[in-house]
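Saturday, quiet lab. Running sequence design on the C-alpha cells for the scaffold JK sent over.
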C-alpha cells in the first residue's frame, strides 16, 4: 500500500504529567547472611579493612599528593540501588564524598583454549556481575566508622551481607608484550577537576623523572586523559603501575589495514549537483576522498587533512564516499529521497603501510575535524580498531566518541568492525570504538552470494562483528548491505563486495562494514535535511530504528538477529516519514525529569480494530530511544539513567485518595496491563524460527532490557494467548501509555551535591497497524487526537525541499 500520509508528532497534556510515588518494602532480603556465615563475612571484611588502615598509615608517612584509594566489592545480590545506597553512605561516613566510581573489571587473557587457540571462558565468568566501588580515604575517622559497622553483626547484618570484600586499590595491568613497546595508561578519576588535573601533572612529572616517554595524550571525556607511553621492559611496566594516580596499563594496539577486493563492472553516469539547490551534507571521517569525475562535484571546497600527501592513500575513503553518493545507482536499490549529498573530506587516517596509527590518534583527529565544522551534523566513520570490546567495560575510544557527539551536538555513524574469524568458524565481538552509546553503529548483511560465499542473501555477512556491546547493550544498532565472503576449497578467502568506485573512479567491488556504514549515514543525513527545525539526533536515530526490520525473514532466530543485526535494516527515507491509510505512527519527543513520569490515560486507538469477536486486533510497534546520562568513572554502569515505556489497556480511569501519604496523583489507571510484554503471548512465537504473518518483528519484545538506551517492542495482538485476550483486549477497555525514568545512585548523589535537577531526553514512536490493510487507522486516530485534546501536527518538512518527497497538506486531521 502506497505511503502518502505524514507521520504525526503529539505532545503530552497537562493532565498526563504525574509525580513519582514511593513504594515501601520492609521485608529482609532472602540473601541476608545469618549466624556463622554472617560472623565469617564480618571477620573477612574487618581483615580487609585492617590492610586498608595499614596502607593508609604508610601512605600518610610517604607524603603522597593524591588521596589513597580503596575498593569495596558489592555482592551480586546487592547491586540494586536500594541496597547499594547503604554501602555508599558507609564509605562516605566521615561527611566527605569519598566514592569516586566503579573499578572496571578487566580480565587477563586466559591460558585455557579450546584446541584452536580460542580462549575458553567459564560459565561463572560469563554470568557473574562484579561491582567494585572505588573510594578515597582521607581520614582515620572513616576507617574507624567502617570498622564499627562491620563488627556489628546484630545491627548491620544487611550491610555486611551486601559486601564481599574490602581492599586497598591496586592499579591493573595487562601482560607485557616484548614485541610491542607502546602501552596505554589511564589515571584514576577522582571526580574532582582539581585532583584530576593534579594527577595529570603528577603523572607527566613521574614519567620525566623516570625517563618514560609519553607519545600521545588524548582527551576522552571532559577532564580525563588517555596516555600512550613507551615501555622498554616488564620492569618499566611495574614501575609505572606503582605511579601515584595510575588506574590501569594495557598494551596499545595500532590500527590495521582492512581487506578490500576489486572486480570490473559497468558504471552509472556521473551526477552533478544543481547550482543553487540545497543538499544534505555528510562529513566523511576516513582516509580521504579523491577528486575523480564521480565524486569531485559533490566535495565541499573545504577539507581537513591530518597527514601530508605522501602518507595518504585515499582509496578506502573514496570507496566509502562512492557508496554514500551512488549506492542506489550502483547496487540497484531505491532507498534515498534526494539526488545526492555534499561531502566534507576529513583525512583522519594515513596509508597504514607507511605510518603507524593508534586509535587515540583517530580520536584526536575526529574531535578536531568536527569542532572545525559545527554546521555539519552527520558524520560517517568507517575506520576504527580491530580490538574486541570488553563485555563489562566501555572502551575509552567509545566514550571519547560519545563525548565528541555530546560536546558538538552531532551524530556519528560508525562501522561495527570487520573480522576474519569466520575462516576458523568463529565470531568476534563488536570492536572497541564501536561500543559508543551515542553513535549509530552499523553491521553488514549480504546483498549477493558468490559460489563459495557463506551467507545467504539478506543474512549477516560472515565478516561482520557481532554484539552485544559492554553491559549487554545492543550493538550494532542497524545493518545495511556490505557484501559477502567465504572460503575456497584451497582454504583461502573469497569475497563478493558491494559495487563501488575506486580511487580513480573505476568500477570495483569492496566488502566490509566500512561500506554498509555510509548507506546508513545517507539516510540519517537525508532525514536531517528534510525535517524542519533544529538538528535532533535522538529523533533521527528513533525514526531509523523504529522503521528497521529483518529482510532475512524466518531464516534466523530472534537471538541471532539481535546479536548480528541489532534492530535490522531501515527502510528508505520516504517510507520512514509516511504512513498508509491502515496505519499511523505517532511521535512523542520530550524530556523527563526525576520525580515525574508521564501517564497518558485514555490514549487514542482505532475502534475499527475491534473485530467481530468484540476484541482488539492489529499490530503494535513501540520504539523508545533515550539519551542516558553517561559517566566514564562508573565502568559497567556507564549509562547512569534509564527510561521505560509501557503501552496497554485498562478498565477505566479511577480517582485516587491523595490524603494517603504515598499517594500524590489524583487519577490513575484501573486494572492497567502493559501489552508489550512477552509473558502475555504464546511461547511458540518467541525465540523460534518466525513465520510469515508478523515474523520479522514480533519477537522484538526481547530487546527492551533495563538501561538499554534503545528499546523496541512489537506485537501482533492475535498472537496473545486466548486467556489473556479475554482479559486485556476486550473492546470495552481503554488504552494508555506510560513513560517513566530511573537514575542510578551515583548520578543522584552527584545531582544532590551540585543542586542540579536530573532529566533525560527521549523519543517514543508508536505505530498502530491493521495487517489486513482494511481499517482506516490513520483517520480514526487522528480524529481521536483532536477529540481528546492533544496538541499534534504532521511531520514538518523544510519548505525548500518539499519536492523531494510526497507530501499532503499540513492541516490537522
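Result came back. Writing it out in full:
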Amino acid at each position: 500500500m502506497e505511503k502518502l500520509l505524514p507521520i504525526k508528532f503529539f505532545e503530552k497534556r497537562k493532565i498526563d504529567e504525574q509525580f513519582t510515588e514511593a513504594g515501601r518494602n520492609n521485608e529482609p532480603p532472602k540473601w541476608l547472611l545469618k549466624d556463622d556465615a554472617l560472623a565469617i563475612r564480618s571477620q573477612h571484611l574487618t581483615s580487609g579493612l585492617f590492610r586498608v588502615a595499614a596502607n593508609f598509615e604508610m601512605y600518610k608517612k610517604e607524603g603522597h599528593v593524591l588521596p589513597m584509594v580503596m575498593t569495596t566489592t558489592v555482592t551480586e545480590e546487592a547491586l540494586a540501588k536500594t541496597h547499594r545506597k547503604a554501602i555508599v553512605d558507609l564509605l562516605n561516613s566521615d561527611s566527605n564524598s569519598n566514592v569516586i566510581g566503579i573499578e572496571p573489571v578487566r580480565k587477563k587473557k586466559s591460558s585455557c583454549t579450546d584446541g584452536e587457540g580460542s580462549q575458553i571462558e567459564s560459565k561463572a565468568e560469563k554470568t557473574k556481575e562484579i561491582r567494585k566501588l572505588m573510594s578515597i580515604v582521607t581520614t582515620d575517622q572513616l576507617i574507624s566508622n567502617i570498622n564499627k559497622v562491620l563488627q556489628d553483626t546484630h545491627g548491620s547484618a544487611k550491610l555486611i551481607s551486601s559486601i564481599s570484600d574490602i581492599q586497598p586499590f591496586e592499579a591493573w595491568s595487562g601482560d607485557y608484550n616484548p614485541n610491542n613497546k607502546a602501552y596505554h595508561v589511564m589515571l584514576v578519576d577522582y571526580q574532582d577537576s582539581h585532583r584530576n588535573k593534579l594527577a595529570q601533572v603528577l603523572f607527566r612529572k613521574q614519567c620525566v623523572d623516570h625517563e618514560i616517554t609519553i607519545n600521545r595524550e588524548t582527551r576522552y571525556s571532559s577532564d580525563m586523559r588517555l596516555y600512550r607511553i613507551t615501555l622498554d621492559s616488564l620492569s618499566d611496566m611495574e614501575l609505572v603501575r606503582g605511579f601515584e594516580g595510575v588506574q590501569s596499563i594495557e598494551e596499545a594496539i595500532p590500527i590495521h589495514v582492512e581487506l578490500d577486493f576489486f572486480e570490473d563492472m559497468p558504471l552509472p553516469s556521473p551526477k552533478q549537483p544543481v547550482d543553487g539547490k540545497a543538499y544534505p551534507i555528510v562529513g566523511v571521517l576516513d582516509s580521504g576522498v579523491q577528486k575523480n569525475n564521480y565524486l569531485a562535484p559533490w566535495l565541499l571546497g573545504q577539507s581537513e587533512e591530518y597527514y601530508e600527501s605522501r602518507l595518504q592513500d585515499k582509496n578506502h575513503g573514496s570507496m566509502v564516499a562512492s557508496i554514500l553518493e551512488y549506492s542506489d545507482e550502483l547496487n540497484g536499490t531505491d532507498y534515498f529521497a534526494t539526488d545526492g549529498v555534499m561531502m566534507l573530506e576529513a583525512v583522519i587516517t594515513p596509508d597504514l603501510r607507511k605510518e603507524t596509527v593508534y586509535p587515540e590518534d583517530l580520536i584526536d583527529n575526529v574531535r578536531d575535524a568536527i569542532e572545525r565544522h559545527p554546521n555539519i551534523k552527520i558524520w560517517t566513520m568507517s575506520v576504527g580498531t580491530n580490538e574486541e570490546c570488553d563485555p563489562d567495560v566501555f572502551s575509552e575510544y567509545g566514550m571519547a566518541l560519545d563525548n565528541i557527539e555530546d560536546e558538538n551536538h552531532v551524530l556519528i555513524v560508525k562501522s561495527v568492525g570487520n573480522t576474519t574469524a569466520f575462516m576458523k568458524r568463529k565470531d568476534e565481538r563488536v570492536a572497541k570504538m564501536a561500543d559508543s552509546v551515542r553513535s549509530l553503529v552499523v553491521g553488514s548483511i549480504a546483498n549477493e552470494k558468490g559460489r563459495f560465499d557463506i551467507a545467504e542473501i539478506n543474512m549477516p555477512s560472515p565478516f561482520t562483528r557481532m554484539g552485544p556491546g559492554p553491559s549487554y547493550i545492543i550493538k550494532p544498532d542497524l545493518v545495511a548491505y556490505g557484501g559477502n565472503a567465504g572460503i575456497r576449497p584451497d582454504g583461502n578467502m573469497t569475497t563478493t563486495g558491494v559495487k563501488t568506485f575506486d580511487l580513480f573512479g573505476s568500477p570495483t567491488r569492496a566488502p566490509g562494514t566500512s561500506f554498509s556504514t555510509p548507506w546508513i549515514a545517507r539516510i540519517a543525513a537525508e532525514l536531517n535535511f528534510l525535517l524542519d527545525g533544529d538538528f535532533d539526533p535522538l529523533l533521527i536515530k528513533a525514526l531509523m530504528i523504529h522503521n528497521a526490520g529483518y529482510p532475512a525473514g524466518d531464516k534466523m532466530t530472534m537471538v541471532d538477529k539481535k546479536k548480528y543485526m541489532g534492530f535490522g535494516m531501515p527502510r528508505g527515507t520516504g517510507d520512514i516519514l509516511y504512513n498508509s491509510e491502515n496505519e499511523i505512527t505517532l511521535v512523542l519527543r520530550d524530556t523527563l525529569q526525576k520525580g515525574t513520569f508521564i501517564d497518558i490515560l485514555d490514549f487514542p486507538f482505532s475502534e475499527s480494530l475491534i473485530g467481530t469477536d468484540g476484541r482488539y486486533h492489529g499490530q503494535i510497534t513501540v520504539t523508545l530511544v533515550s539519551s542516558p546520562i553517561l559517566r566514564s568513572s562508573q565502568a559497567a554502569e556507564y549509562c547512569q539513567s534509564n527510561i521505560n515505556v509501557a503501552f496497554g489497556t485498562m478498565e477505566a480511569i479511577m480517582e485516587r485518595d491523595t490524603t494517603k501519604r504515598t499517594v500524590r496523583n489524583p487519577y490513575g489507571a484501573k486494572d492497567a496491563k502493559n501489552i508489550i510484554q512477552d509473558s502475555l503471548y504464546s511461547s511458540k512465537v518467541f525465540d523460534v524460527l518466525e513465520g510469515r504473518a508478523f515474523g520479522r518483528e514480533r519477537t522484538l519484545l526481547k530487546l527492551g532490557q533495563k538501561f538499554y538506551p534503545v528499546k523496541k517492542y512489537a506485537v501482533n495482538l492475535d498472537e496473545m494467548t486466548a486467556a489473556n485476550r479475554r482479559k486485556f483486549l476486550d473492546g470495552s477497555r481503554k488504552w494508555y501509555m506510560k513513560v517513566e525514568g530511573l537514575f542510578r545512585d551515583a548520578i543522584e548523589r552527584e545531582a544532590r551535591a551540585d543542586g542540579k535537577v536530573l532529566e533525560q531526553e527521549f523519543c517514543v514512536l508508536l505505530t498502530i497497524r491493521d495487517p489486513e490493510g482494511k481499517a482506516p487507522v490513520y483517520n480514526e486516530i487522528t480524529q481521536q487526537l483532536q477529540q481528546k485534546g492533544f496538541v499534534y501536527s504532521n511531520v514538518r518538512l523544510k519548505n525548500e525541499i518539499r519536492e523531494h518527497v510526497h507530501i499532503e497538506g499540513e492541516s490537522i486531521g
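Notes for JK: Residues 267 and 507 are 6 Å apart (CA to CA). Residues 109-126, 259-264, 686-702, 800-813 have pLDDT under 50 and may be disordered. Ask whether to fix the surface positions before the next round.
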